[in-house]
Amino acid sequence: MKILIIEDEPSLRELMERTLTKEHYIVETAENYAQAEEKLALYNYDCILLDIMLPDGNGLHLLEELKAQDKRESVIIISARDSLEDKILGLEQGADDYLPKPFHLMELTARIRSVIRRSQGNGKKGYTLGNVYLDPESHRVEVEGQELPLLKKEFDILAYFMQRPGHLVDKAVLAEAVWGDHADQADNFHFVYAQMKNLRRKLEEAGATIEIKVVYGFGYKLAVNQ
Fold first, then answer.
1. Among candidates 120, 117, 213, 109, which has minimal Cα distance to 167?
2. Domain count within the chain
3. Tens of pLDDT, residues 110-123
4. Residue 72 and residue 91 in one domain
5. How many angstroms separate the CA atoms of 215 and 168, rounded?
6. Integer Cα distance of 182 and 169 in angstroms
7. Are both 68 and 96 inside the same structural domain?
8. Do 81 and 178 belong together in one domain?
9. Is the peptide bond before 136 cis (omega within 30 degrees of 0)?
């Protein structure tokens, strides 16, 4: 699961980033309106943590842009402004939740899990495809009810594909989605190939009825074998 933190206060931004990274989220940050606007134009996220009071713009305007672009990220407003008018305006413009500052980090993580579950539909915790079940909260994967141990990045890759069955995914898009900002530091995709090779082998050895297929010249696609 990929999260964007839009927060101008450095200490709070860094604390949120460390906390959510420990919860196995892929975390990117933006410290002002311009950075946030650029990231939202280029990438997709599962959840956005949005401060309203940014030094170079109003965070609510970012909500308007998301709505205009028909983007479907879950949005939690995190702001020191706790007036009823702000809450109503934010929710009317498409926010999924509103968390006033100061807040406990445990409550923040609980709110994130809640809005992501709602966005998945019916409040379900995980994903099932073929005989494979993946629970993003417990970081657990099962094949025919038996746990399949995966490394963190292997899990992140599988989670990304299980949310997009049948979709063709370019290796550059996958790298950015799973490795976040750190993907830009790589000059090749050997790290993607290595993780993908291990994941595909583990799925096959466990008897999974799903397969991440290589589409040569394009990328990868998750398919269910009949």
1. 213
2. 2
3. 899 888 877 765 44
4. yes
5. 8
6. 19
7. yes
8. no
9. no
Q: Do both 94 and 163 map to the same domain?
A: no
| List of E strands, 97-218 | 97-100, 127-129, 132-135, 140-143, 146-147, 168-170, 210-215
Which of these three, 99, 120, 141, is where a domain ends? 120
C-alpha 49/C-alpha 55 separation (Å) is 16
Q: How far apart are CA 117 and CA 106, in angstroms?
A: 17
Contacting residues for 85 by C-beta, under 8 A, at least 6 apart: none
pTM greater than 0.70 (yes/no): no
Nearest one of 142, 176, 162 to 211, comparing CA atoms = 162
Interval 97-111: pLDDT, tens: 998 888 999 999 989
Task: Tell me the residue type at 3.
Answer: I
Bridge pairing between strands 26-30 and 2-6: parallel
Domain that holds residue 158: 127-224
Sort 209 into a burial class: Cβ within 10 Å, 0-12 / 13-18 / 19+: middle
Q: How many residues does the chain have?
A: 226
Amino acid in the structure at residue 148 = L
Q: How far apart are the first and last CA of the chain?
A: 28
Helix axes 171-179, 152-162, angle to 10 degrees: 120
Q: Quick one: pLDDT at residue 182?
A: 59
